[in-house]
Amino acid sequence: MSSASPTTRLPSGNPFRSFWMGGYECTDQLNTFGNRVDFLTLTGHLQLIDEDYQDLGPFHIRTVREGIRWSQVEKTPYHYDWSTVQVLLDAGRRHGIQQVWDLCHFGYPDDLTPLHPMFARRFAHLCRAFVDFYRQQRPDEVLIVTPINEVSFMSWLGGDVRGTSPYCVGQGWEVKRGLMRAYIEGVAALREADPGIRILTTEPLIHIVPAPGSSRTHRQRVAEFDSNQFQSVDMLAGRLCPELGGREEYLDLLGFNYYYDNQWQLEPRQTLGWANEDHDLRFRPLSFLLTRAWQRYRRPVVLTETSHPGVDRPAWIDMIGRECAAALRAGVPLFGACLYPIIDRPDWDYLDQWHRSGLWDADLQPDGFPQRALYQPYADALHKAQRTVEVALPVTVGFPEVSLL
After folding, report:
1. Considering the entire predicted model, what is its pTM?
2. Percent of the chain with pLDDT over 70
């Protein structure tokens, strides 16, 4: 598989302050009913940010994922209100927390969709404006940005199943192209504004298998579906749809999101149990999937989202710790793992249904305001997973100013 040419100049070293990270749900999308949601406030993170950051201390978490909420920042084209982002930035400074920024998580301004002819231009302008805003306050700190989160998922949700804007069916490929055109123009703008910026992609890491006894034709079709998970990153690298302007040097930090239902049989649709208690030979451990992704691109890898709802949270994070350690021992330059969400979140479409997937549950008060309730079995399992990974981390992993936990 191809990698960057010898003349390509890429950033080196691990820029994260801790291996274990926390991700705060920041979606601001239009949900399936056409209603705008704002999870930064629904989860109480904006209101309780000092408490949330203080609570990270016992877990040695010094790096978090946050989002600017494009739809809230740009209410009027090319005019930006950074006041809420300023609140987040100030809290990060107070508590010594490194913040990795999503510029577009799940949500666009009211007048835009990925199919709009001005979508890419508006996004590139946002990228430049954000760098200018950030660098006025933090001229020397490493800036890590995810331009657009989970393009593969967003293009399916909005392009194929009417789950969000632009509410299409059968247009997933066109939505993906629109998102990646903006992504690529955004990276070019970010690099122009700040040559030292670090770009963190965040795409689903999946594994799709055929049913036992499938025909050769069907197996080939399933293999194509499985390979399509890399389309967005291939576009960014210019390996696919080079007319969009992608370049190999745009690949930097490769983030992959992995959940309990990320492996499935295509037809008939059936999720492969993540514990693989039935010893299904089609199942692949997370360490295998991370290794496969790393071998494809030869860039540092980050597990940018992972969690499990309900009572299986401890068993899940125990597995994550073991698989991260296995990937590290296999030589994968795995730079970190992010608990996402670290604070529980409600369902995007049914806001009264909470997932119970965080390290902290959102304990709803009579007035509906979410407080914090640590799920102790998850906390105990996380400490165990941290010890498991610490043993496997190479001394040269190079976290700045932080414990290897």
Report:
1. 0.94
2. 94
